[in-house]
Every structure is written in C-alpha cells, then in structure tokens.
Amino acid sequence: MAETSKTSSGRPPKKQSPVKAAPVKALSETSVPKKTAPVVSKTVPTALPVPSAPAIIVAKEPEIVVEMVKSTAKAVPQAIRQASRKAEASRDTLRLAMTEAATASTRGVLEVNDKVIEAFRVQSDAALDLWRSTLSAATLADAIHVQTTGVRQVCETAAAQWKDIAETTTRWIDKSVQPIQSVWSGRAN
User: Fold this and answer.
1) The pTM of the whole model exceeds 0.70
2) What pLDDT sits at residue 189?
3) CA angle, corner 109, sides to 107 and 115, nearest 5?
4) Which end of the chain is flanked by fewer CB atoms within 10 Å, N or C?
C-alpha cells in the first residue's frame, strides 16, 4: 500500500510548478561605454517567479576595467596628499602673514604711543615756558608780544607733532595690513 505524505494539517501538499525562467530586458547601447560591449543573457533561471530579474553584464575586455580601477585607486590617494600639502602650505603662509601683521601692529602701536606721549610732554613744557616768559615780561606790551608769539609757536609745534602722529598711524596700519593683503592677492592669481 503506497502512502502519500501529508502536511501537519492533514492535507496533501500542493504540487509545485516547474522552474521557469524570467525574461530579461536588454540594455540599450547608449548606456554602456563604447569600449566595452555587454553580453546579456536572454533568460535568468530562478526558483521563484520574479517579475523582472537584473541583467548580467560581462565585459569583453575585463583588463580595461581592471586597469581603470587600478589607476583610480592610485590617483585618489595622490590627489588627497596633494590637496593636503596645498592646504598645509596655505595654512603656514596665512599663519606667517598673521604673525607678521601682529608684529607690525605691535611696533606701530608702540611708535604711535611714544609719539603721543612725546607730543604731550613737549606741549606741556612749551605751555609752561610760555607762561614763565609771559609772567617775567617787564611791561604789558612785552607780555602781550611774548604771549602771541609763544602761542603761535606752540600751535605750530603741536600741528607738526599731530601731523607726524597721523603719518605714523597711517604707516602702522599699512604695515599691519600688508602681509595679509599679500597672501590674499597671491591666492587670487
């Protein structure tokens, strides 16, 4: 007596259909590079029915593909190293320019500070000398004459000193900005 196999529910198992091959769409020639022509299989055998299976592409000349991958693998690290060297050089140049700018700015501030202090000292000395000479004048006419000429000299001296301070400040700013400008003008070229 032949016994048929049954599932756990007690029913006989369903018959499975034979394996069918799903059709594969061919690739258009425009989507494949000219040097490599694809070989596409017409059918792909599957155990389960699949609406569309992926196409299998095999290059006629795999050496070309391997060579392209090797050259890309060599070029990428070189490009990264080159970009790294360029960034490092740029960083060093900018750091040097900033150091030069800070040094020039410090020197300029000290020079302007010295000139301002000197101007105040000279002006206060001139004012005291003017008052002494005015008070020591013998007549009122001599006192007025000493006062007018002394004030004119003090004003001329003060104007010359403040002009010198303004020129020094301009040089200070120019020298402070020059290193940074040279870096930025070098990058534009």
Assistant:
1) no
2) 53
3) 105
4) N
Amino acid at 88: E
Domain ranges of the chain: 82-188
Neighbours of 108 (CB within 10 A): 19
What values do phi and psi take at 39, rounded to 5? -115, 115
Measure the CA–CA gap between 59 and 33, rounded to whole angstroms: 10
Structure confidence by residue, pLDDT tens digits, 78-135 = 888 888 888 888 888 889 999 999 999 999 999 999 999 999 999 999 999 999 998 8
Taking the C-alpha atoms of residue 154 and residue 135, their distance in angstroms, rounded to an integer, is 17
Q: Any residues with CB less than 8 A from the CB of 61 and at least 6 apart, and which?
A: 35, 36
Inter-CA distances, 76 with 23, 82, 83, 123, Å: 40, 10, 11, 69
Kindly report the length of the chain: 189
Integer Cα distance of 94 and 159 in angstroms:
39
Q: Percentage helix, strand, coil, to 5, in the chain?
A: 65, 5, 25
DSSP 40: E
pLDDT at residue 45 is higher than 90: no
First to last CA, the chain: 97
Mean pLDDT rounded to a whole number for the chain: 77
Between vectors from CA 97 to CA 91 and to CA 101, what angle results, nearest 5°?
145
pLDDT band at 162 (very low <50, low <70, confident <90, very high): very high
